[in-house]
Amino acid sequence: xxxxxxxxxxxxxxxxxxxxxxxxxxxxxxxxxxxxxxxxxxxxxxxxxxxxxxxxxxxxxxxxxxxxxxxxxxxxxxxxxxxxxxxxxxxxxxxxxxxxxxxxxxxxxxxxxxxxxxx
Length: 119
Ligand SMILES: [Cu+2]
Prior knowledge:
This is Cupredoxin domain-containing protein. InterPro entries: Cupredoxin, EfeO_Cupredoxin, ET_Amicyanin. Keywords: Signal. Residues 1-18 form the signal peptide. This protein is α/β, with parallel strands linked by helices. It has a single domain, classed as Cupredoxins -  blue copper proteins (Immunoglobulin-like, Sandwich). It has two helices and nine strands. The strands form three sheets. A four-stranded mixed sheet has the order 2-1-4-7, with no helix packed on it. Residues 47, 72, 105, 107-108, 111 line the site of copper (II) ion.
């Protein structure tokens, strides 16, 4: 179990550092500017979202990464749904309009978070 965790973490780190991941928030390679590449990372760990509250501006993204050995989702009723994320998988949400978005893991109703989007 430990070994698998380490491999998962290593893969994830690789993806985060090198932008080589399959999840692909680095879909805009070199041309992207600081204006739209600010990425907030929310880790799903110990069945919580960490951090559970993030602030972004319109056009910025939030990257959800499952660091747990169990599956989670990040599901906001009207805005986005990651679907099932397993260990090491990620989902990227791009904020397109201002407002506060509450989201939950559909498997763990007590696992909640918010994204505050401003202009
Ligand atoms: Cu969960």
